[in-house]
Amino acid sequence: MSDRDRVDELMDGWRAELPAAATVQLEIVKRVGRLKGRIEETTQAVLGRRGLTYAEFDVLTTLRRSGAPYRLKPSALASRAMLTSGGTSNILQRLTGAGLVEREPDPADGRSSWVRLTPLGVARCEEMSLATTEAHRALFAGVSEPAARALADLLRETLLALGDRAED
After folding, report:
1. How far, rounded to the nearest angstrom, does the alpha carbon of residue 1 sit from its chain's CA centroid?
2. pTM above 0.70, yes or no
3. 52-142 in CATH: which number?
4. Left if phi > 0, otherwise alpha if psi is -120 to 50, otherwise beta: which for 99?
């Protein structure tokens, strides 16, 4: 392969200085890290223009993809969004203040509550989801569909081998 990326450069240095550190695993870590950075940069540019953080967007999308009536218990929301309960609580305060979510008591359990998207929250979530989807399409425009599919499948295979399985 004649084209080289920045990780190839880094690996050249390790091969020359400490060959035992120049592993395929390091290449994976570095490439996935760089890809994650590019994706987060692209996503945050879209969200920042709309006044939201990635974590706030993640909470909104977790509620939206839960299906109508777009509500979850706070603990289930934190788990599905892969956030801490404290972090989720702070995010929910901001989203409630913005009118995007609301808390409602659970009539079946007086000690518990539901977090639900408001109609404005549903609309903003859908708008931002489509905007980030378009930004991701643009980011990956130079990657062929078969290569993108192969990468997605290889990443799934890798995550499963590392024990990252769906909860359901």
Report:
1. 31
2. yes
3. 1.10.10.10
4. left
